[in-house]
Design goal:
With about 80 residues, this protein is an alpha+beta fold. It contains 1 helix and 5 strands.
Length: about 80
Amino acid sequence: MVKFATYGFAVALLAAATAANAESVTSTVRSFDANQQVLVIDDGRSFAVQPGLDTSQIEPGMTVTLNVEQIGNAEIVTEISTN
């Protein structure tokens, strides 16, 4: 039973740590590679896009707000809003 409680606690800590590393980024899209699911914004930062997100409207030059989460060493876009 202690093993399961420890596991649950570790999962809760991981979830809290992930949420703490989320940020909102509003910027202009420089480029978007739909095949590789990589989005580059006007300051040169690039982000992997979470599989399953609707990216059909994303085009270079449009302004977007991204919810970005740090997962491991990668910054992953978990939500995209067009402005």
